[in-house]
Amino acid sequence: MTVIEAIDLTKRFGGPSAPPVLDAINLSIQAGEVFGYLGPNGAGKTTTIRVLLGLLNPTRGTVRVFGEVPGERDAARARLGVLLENSGLDDRMTAFQSLDYHARLYGVSNRTRRIERLLGFVGLADQRDLKVGTFSTGMKRKLGLARAIVHDPELLFLDEPSAGLDPEAQRMVRELLQELARTRNITVFINSHHLDEVQRLCSRIAILHRGRIRACDSVDALRRGAGGDRIEVRFSDAGQAARGAQALRALGRLPEVTVEGDRLATSVDGMTAPEIVATLVGEGLGIEEVVRPVKSLEDVYFEIMREEEAA
Ligand SMILES: Nc1ncnc2c1ncn2[C@@H]1O[C@H](COP(=O)(O)OP(=O)(O)O)[C@@H](O)[C@H]1O
Ligand SMILES: [Mg+2]
Known about the structure:
Elements: E1 2-11, E2 22-30, E3 34-38, H1 45-52, E4 60-65, H2 74-77, E5 80-83, H3 95-105, H4 111-121, H5 137-149, E6 155-159, H6 167-183, E7 187-192, H7 195-201, E8 204-209, E9 212-218, H8 219-225, E10 230-235, H9 238-251, E11 257-260, E12 263-267, H10 273-282, E13 287-291, H11 297-310
Parallel strand pairs: 3-7, 3-8, 5-6, 6-7
Antiparallel strand pairs: 1-2, 1-4, 8-9, 10-12, 10-13, 11-12
Helix pairs in contact: 3-4
C-alpha cells in the first residue's frame, strides 16, 4: 500500500519568479518503509514534511498521504505521528502530563498504563513527574518521540530527530527508532543530514539537493551504483596477477582490467563476479583474496553533492 505519494511537487515562496524550494519532487513510499530524506541545510527537507502534513500548500503538483490530500480530513491526522525540530512541548507540564494531554486529544484508551510503558520505552520512567522545563535537549527529544507515538500512529514524520544531541543521546534515539521500526509495522519518514543515522535506520533513501531529488534507492543499491560495481582480486604474487589480467583481457568482455603489484581490479561489467573468479580459478592461479569494495553512503553523498555543485 502506498502511504505517501508526491507527484511533481513544486513549492515556491513568493512570486512565480522566485526560485523553487521544491522542484518537481516525485515520491512513492510504501507501508512499512523507513524512508530517509537526506540533504544539506536548506535543501527543502522541512518544507517537504510541512507540505505532507498539510501545513503548506504545494505551488504545483499533488501530494497524498493515505490516499488523501493532507489536512483535508481529521481522520487521517490521527494516523500520523509527528516530531518536528522544535518539539512544541510545554515546559510547565510534567513528562506524564505532556503525554496525557496528547493522548486525550486522540482519545487513547488505557492512557495511564500506555503512557507509563512509553516513558519506560524512551528511558524517562524516573522523570515521569518532572517538569519538561528542567529537561535536557536529549530528554525533550525522547519525550517528543514518545508523544509522537502515544496514539499508535501508522505513519511517523521525524524532522532531524538527532540534531543537537550528543553522540550518546543520538545513539539512544536511533536505537529507539530501530526498535520501533522492528516491533511495529510503522512507516517512518525521516529528515536528516546525518548520514550514519540514515544508513543504519533506513531501508530506502532520497538525496535532496536544492529542492530536487538527485538519487533515490536502497542504501545498498546507491552504494553499489556509485562509480560502478567493482571487484579486486589479490594473488599470491605479482606474476600470478599479471597472468590473471591477461586471461581476462583475452576474453574481451571486460572494459578494463588493471594490475597493481599482486592485485588485479576491474569493474563488474560484461561478466558477472562469479564468472570472473571462475575464469581465474580455471587458469590455476593462486588467489589469496577476492574483495567487492563498497562505497560508504558518505562517499556516495559527497559524490552527488560535488556533481551538483559542478553542474
Ligand atoms: N516560509 C518560508 N518563506 C520563505 N522561504 C522559506 C520558507 N520556509 C523555508 N524557506 C526556504 O526554503 C529553503 C528550504 O528550507 P527547508 O525546507 O527548511 O530546508 P531543510 O529542512 O532541508 O534545511 C531554504 O532556502 C529556506 O530559506
Ligand atoms: Mg529542516
